[in-house]
TrEMBL record:
The keyword Zinc-finger applies. This is DEUBAD domain-containing protein. It is found in: Nucleus. Pfam families: ASXH (PF13919). One of its GO terms (molecular function) is zinc ion binding. One of its GO terms (cellular component) is nucleus. InterPro entries: ASX_DEUBAD_dom (IPR028020), DEUBAD_dom (IPR044867). Keywords: Metal-binding, Nucleus, Transcription, Transcription regulation, Zinc, Zinc-finger. Residues 26-140 form the DEUBAD domain. Signal peptide: none annotated.
Length: 187
C-alpha cells in the first residue's frame, strides 16, 4: 500500500527574538556573536531606513570614516572601521555587557537609580567607613583638594581668594625656620 503525500503543513515557528529583546536579553544570539562582522555585513547597512542611516552617520566623530559624506548615500567606511581599535573594543564591550545582562531594562533602571543616589551622596558615609576600615583614617583635605562650586564646597571664588591670601600673609609673616640654608656662604 502506497503512502499518501503528507498534506499537513508544517507550523511556522515564530522566533522568540524581536527588536527589543535581542538587544537586551543576556541569552540573545548577539551575546555570543562576532558583532564587528555582523555590523560590517552589507545587509546590516542596506536594511536600515534612511532615517536610521542618517542617525548613525550623525554619531560618527570623524567624517573621514564616512564615504560620500553629506549626501543621501553616505555610509561608514567599513574598511577603516574593521581595523579601528576603538570600534573593535566597543563591539567587544557591548557583547560582554549584553552577556552579563547589563542591557536588561530592569538592570538599567536599577543602575541609573544607584547612579543618582551615589551622585547625591547617599553612599558617602558607607564608602568613608569602608575606606577607613581598610586603609585607616582619611587625611584632612588640603587647600589644593578643595574644589570651588561643587556640592562639597559651598565657597565662592572670592572666599577662596580670601583663604589663599590669608595663607600667603601667614606664610610671609612667619620667620623662616632654616634661615641661611639658601644664603651664600660668608654672609
Amino acid at each position: 500500500m502506497a503512502r499518501g503525500k503528507r498534506t499537513a503543513t508544517a507550523k511556522k515557528r515564530r522566533s522568540r527574538w524581536n527588536s527589543e529583546n535581542i538587544l537586551s536579553n543576556a541569552k540573545s544570539p548577539l551575546a555570543s556573536c562576532d558583532l564587528r562582522t555582523v555590523l560590517s555585513h552589507p545587509l546590516a547597512w542596506s536594511s536600515l531606513t534612511t532615517e536610521d542611516r542618517r542617525e548613525i552617520i550623525s554619531l560618527f566623530p570623524d567624517k573621514a570614516q564616512i564615504l560620500e559624506a553629506d549626501t543621501d548615500s553616505a555610509r561608514p567606511n567599513f574598511d577603516i572601521l574593521m581595523s579601528d581599535d576603538g570600534f573593535r573594543a566597543d563591539c567587544a564591550a557591548y557583547v560582554a555587557n549584553l552577556a552579563h545582562g547589563r542591557h536588561d531594562p530592569v538592570w538599567l533602571a536599577e543602575a541609573w537609580t544607584a547612579h543618582e543616589r551615589r551622585k547625591a551622596g547617599d553612599f558617602d558615609a558607607f564608602l568613608k567607613e569602608r575606606f577607613e576600615e581598610e586603609w585607616g583614617p582619611l587625611p584632612e583635605p588640603t587647600l589644593d583638594e578643595i574644589h570651588v562650586g561643587g556640592s562639597d564646597a559651598q565657597q565662592t571664588v572670592d572666599e577662596m581668594d580670601d583663604i589663599v591670601l590669608d595663607e600667603i600673609v601667614v606664610a610671609e609673616s612667619d620667620p623662616p625656620e632654616h634661615e641661611g640654608l639658601m644664603s651664600p656662604q660668608g654672609s
